[in-house]
From TrEMBL:
InterPro entries: 4NH2But_aminotransferase_bac, Aminotrans_3, Aminotrans_3_PPA_site, Class-III_PLP-dep_AT, PyrdxlP-dep_Trfase, PyrdxlP-dep_Trfase_major, PyrdxlP-dep_Trfase_small. It catalyses: (S)-3-amino-2-methylpropanoate + 2-oxoglutarate = 2-methyl-3-oxopropanoate + L-glutamate; 4-aminobutanoate + 2-oxoglutarate = succinate semialdehyde + L-glutamate. Keywords: Aminotransferase, Pyridoxal phosphate, Transferase. It is an enzyme of class 2 (transferase). It comes from the Bacteria. Its cofactor is pyridoxal 5'-phosphate. Its EC number is 2.6.1.19, 2.6.1.22. GO terms for biological process: gamma-aminobutyric acid metabolic process. One of its GO terms (molecular function) is pyridoxal phosphate binding. This is 4-aminobutyrate aminotransferase. Belongs to the class-III pyridoxal-phosphate-dependent aminotransferase family. Gene3D superfamilies: Aspartate Aminotransferase, domain 1, Type I PLP-dependent aspartate aminotransferase-like (Major domain).
């Protein structure tokens, strides 16, 4: 197929990237993984060019960081203007208006009622850590519940809360105390013969039993839930399950935290994914696409929780930096003006239709799931056993990269392809990327060879 956007002129990675990769291997520890061995030269929207001149379509979005696309002109202007005025003062030393402006705008968008406040940090893990601190301070309790397959970060607390052992936890213990992992629905992998409604009731019962067999709810400060699990494989829980967890939190005075770090900022067709489930959280953690690639994170919360901490108990030297605040304000403008919530719904419909068509051809595609433009495709060895096929996913990712499409895997078993393309991607770019995805899947599933170089 003739490409309009993708241009492959060398092998991937190309010779210049390979030279830099050798230097990387000498200078950077192997514990920092690289999905692609190419080096970027420039990027715009959903298009990325490497230093060898190969041009790619981006379906990875820097792991969900670029909902507004690479180098959006509005974000670039905001950063240039801010850098020309001042780069950093530390909010604790001398405050700046953008911190307050961003707090007010996010509070207005918060998916819960009442008075709200916002605190800013640097990374998603920091946001989760501080949500736990706020919940513990508010409740006077220590216990924290997260969920199987959940991912919350790589710091001590968030690594403890994270479910996947390898590569995130293996050999890094001991872990933080008073963290408990509750079962989380996975409808595709429900017990054989069990219907979806029956499974939903079963998972609710499992959570209720968990609060009897594993930990008393009166000792729990916070339940931290990804409304849609990200690294866990884009697992969408049943609405009734989320609502029951919320009810239990209310009953026992537990702080319900929605971890929206990967799901937020229009990815699912709403500002926050929790809005799809008909519940109100107490705290919301945010990061990733919040800053369009500039490090910034935050916690949005009910005022009665947020205001409990004393001066100096929250924050950090770079927390809510001027550059991050200005980038985030630009992101909110872009989402509103370019109607990215509506765009996410449109992208999701086209993506899901394409994936379902692909699944009709190949029985190795076991499940298609997601909300809005947060979609995934689970690959199995056969549909009867549902045995995960991590190797096939790795080969599809490699085949796609060779053809000029950037993809990401996910899932506890590493057998899920997740799609996080910028929401600013054009329909033509989306269709070309989907065509490359189909070619890559066909190559792996049908045992064909990659397209000739430069085609």
């Amino acid at each position: 197929m003739e490409r309009k956007f993708v241009k492959i002129v060398t092998s991937v990675p190309g010779p210049l990237s390979l030279e830099w990769a050798e230097r990387r291997d000498q200078a950077v520890p192997r514990g920092i993984s690289n999905n692609c061995r190419s080096f970027v030269k420039k990027a715009s929207g959903a298009i990325v060019e490497d230093i060898d001149g190969n041009v790619h379509i981006d379906f990875a979005g820097a792991i969900g960081t670029l909902n507004v696309g690479h180098a959006h002109p509005r974000v670039v202007r905001a950063l240039q203007e801010q850098a020309g005025q001042f780069i950093h003062t530390c909010f604790n030393v001398m405050m700046y208006e953008s911190y307050i402006e961003l707090s007010e705008r996010l509070a207005a968008l918060a998916p819960f009622s009442g008075e709200k406040q916002v605190a800013f940090f640097n990374s998603g893990a920091e946001a989760v850590e501080n949500a736990v601190k706020i919940a513990r301070k508010h409740t006077g309790r220590q216990g924290v519940i997260s969920f199987t397959r959940g991912f919350h970060g790589r710091t001590l607390m968030t690594m403890t809360m994270t479910s996947k052992v390898k590569p995130y936890k293996f050999g890094f213990g001991p872990f933080a105390p008073e963290v408990y992992k509750a079962p989380y629905p996975y409808t595709y992998r429900r017990p054989a013969g069990m219907g979806e409604e029956q499974y939903s009731a079963f998972m609710i019962e499992q959570f209720e039993q968990f609060l009897i067999s594993e930990v008393a709810p009166e000792t729990i400060a916070a339940v931290v839930m990804e409304p849609i699990q990200g690294e866990g494989g884009f697992i969408v829980p049943d609405k009734a399950f989320v609502q029951r967890v919320r009810e239990i939190c209310t009953q026992y005075g537990i702080v319900f935290v929605a971890d929206e770090i990967q799901t937020g900022f229009a990815r699912t067709g709403k500002y926050f994914a929790i809005e799809h489930f008909g519940v109100e959280p107490d705290l919301v953690t945010i990061s990733k696409s919040m800053g369009a690639g500039v490090p910034i994170s935050g916690v949005i919360g009910k005022k009665e929780l947020m205001d409990v901490a004393n001066p100096g108990e929250l924050g950090g030297t770079y927390s809510g930096s001027p550059l991050g605040c200005k980038a985030a304000l630009a992101v909110l403008d872009i989402i509103e003006e370019e109607k990215l919530n509506e765009r996410a719904t449109h992208i999701g419909e086209k993506l899901t239709a394409s994936l379902k068509e692909l699944a009709s051809k190949y029985p190795q595609i076991g499940d298609i799931r997601g909300i809005g433009a947060m979609c995934a495709m689970e690959i199995v060895k056969d549909k009867e056993t549902k045995n995960p096929d991590k190797e096939a996913v790795g080969r599809i990712v490699k085949e796609a990269a060779d053809r000029g499409l950037l993809l990401l895997s996910a899932g506890l078993f590493g057998n899920v392809l997740r799609f996080l393309m910028p929401l600013t991607i054009t329909d033509e770019q989306l269709e070309e990327g989907l065509q490359i995805l189909e070619e890559s899947a066909e190559t792996v599933f049908a045992g064909q060879h990659a397209v000739p170089l430069g085609s």
